[in-house]
Amino acid sequence: MSKFLDLTGLGTFKEKIDAQIKAEVANADHLKRQIVEALPETGSADENTIYMKLHDGEGRDDKYDEYMLIDGTFELIGNSEVDLTDYAKKTDVSSAKDDAVSQAKAYTDGKASEYATAAQGKKADSAVQSVKIGEKELNSEGNVVLPAATASADGLMASADKKKLDELVPITNEEIEALFN
């Protein structure tokens, strides 16, 4: 017999996996920033800290130089300057949006002739094509009812698949616990 996780078992399994992930993330080293007046001694510095030291130069718009301890030595890795020169401005985005709307309207207007008009829509909505399931063809005036699959008759799933599904046995909580021990 095949085994599967029912919804309760799947929920228990997910909770255990989530707990393991949270524990691993909590135990991992995390990068952090610290504003300092002077860089600490390398022996007491943290390798997972970006030390932000007030820079000594004049004429700069930024406020801090950023240092990290790399292989026992402080390295300047950047500064807090922000350059927005190449970023889009609100007027650029608004103009791009207007262009996109105009292009989309032109495209859809060009495609409109390929589809039914509102007057034709009522007729098109009521037309039903025949539907074939297995060897059985279904056709009706407006509604097509699809038969459900059973262990002996095809329907919305093959009978062999329905039979396999009926034979599945849920996995127990004890079996889930055994997976983690």
Plain-language structure description:
This protein is an alpha/beta fold and 181 residues long. It folds into 2 domains: 74 residues, no CATH class; 81 residues, no CATH class. Helix content is 38%, strand content 19%. A 4-stranded mixed β-sheet has the order 2-3-4-5, with no helix packed on it. Strand 6 and strand 7 form a beta hairpin. The longest helix has 22 residues. The two termini are 24 Å apart.
Topology diagram in text:
Layout: E1 3-4, H1 7-27, E2 32-36, E3 49-54, E4 64-70, E5 73-79, H2 90-111, H3 118-126, E6 131-133, E7 136-138, H4 159-167, E8 169-170, H5 173-179
Parallel strand pairs: 1-8, 2-3
Antiparallel strand pairs: 3-4, 4-5, 6-7
Q: Which key features would you list for this structure?
A:
181 residues, alpha/beta, 2 domains, 5 helices, 8 strands, 38% helix, flat
* Strands in their spatial order, largest beta sheet: 2-3-4-5
Major sheet: size, sense and barrel closure? 4 strands, mixed
- How many helical elements? 5
Domain module tally: 2
